[in-house]
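Retro notes, structure queue

What went well: the backlog is down to a handful. What didn't: a couple of records were mislabeled last round, so from now on we paste the full input next to the output in the thread. Example, using Restriction endonuclease subunit M from Rahnella sikkimica:
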Amino acid sequence: MQTEPEVLTDHTEVIRSTSIERVVSGRNAALAQIEALIHQLEDISVITNSIGGGIARYWAMRQDFRCGCWLMEKAETAMPVITRNLDRDVWRDLMKRSGMLSLMDAQARDQWYRNLEGDNIPAINEANILSTFEQLHQSKDEVFERGVVNVFKGLSWDYKTNSPCSFGKKIIINNLVTHNRWGFSLNWGWRRDQLADLERMLFLLDGKPIPDNRGDIATRLMEHVRDKPGQQFYEDDYFSIRYYQKGTGHLTFKRPELIDKMNDIIAKHYPGTLAR
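Corresponding output:
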């Protein structure tokens, strides 16, 4: 069950100070205990090795899962890696609980995850948390508008219904599905991200909370295609989608007033190109 975000994106406070204090103090206390545990294991290893029993990395690991453990390394080697791994997961959790991740388009989410996989992850402390979320909060409108523009730019102009001037009532998306002798399947990759971004925009423009990614349009359409192989039509509150064996998806918007709002964004970014 999805819980309410701890951070309200339209609030002046980017993230609750009590939550920050709890996260930072918990992280620091855990790292201190982990380092103490490593030193304690080193002391125990000295004893067991002196009596011929070897060190902790030999007698503490399951024989069928000898894949290594940082707790068995020297503290100066292990602690930077453990700290980085812990901070990476804390950042992921903060982004999820804050509600900021759901406001990001596919491009921004991909960049965020890439940054987390690097070695220079910002340490979890009050200053870094506040500055990161303030920056994300300040740029959320820009990221949102970029999502609208990227979906628009990703459309193929080979189809008459895909107007190079604005979003129309209907758009055609290439390579949305795959068809073979077993039936249809929804394609992975950027087309699926594009569809999810499109729904995310409509929810935001409609003033409604964005659905969890486990229940977004891409997930629902995938389940529909899988569970109803004889159908080639999907419908919800915002879209009706008809998909074809050649892989295209014909998407019809059901809320004209939201199309107008998306086109206002397109016109803002391409004022000399788009006809209004």
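Agreed that this is the format going forward. Reviewer comment attached to the example: The chain has a mean pLDDT of 83.
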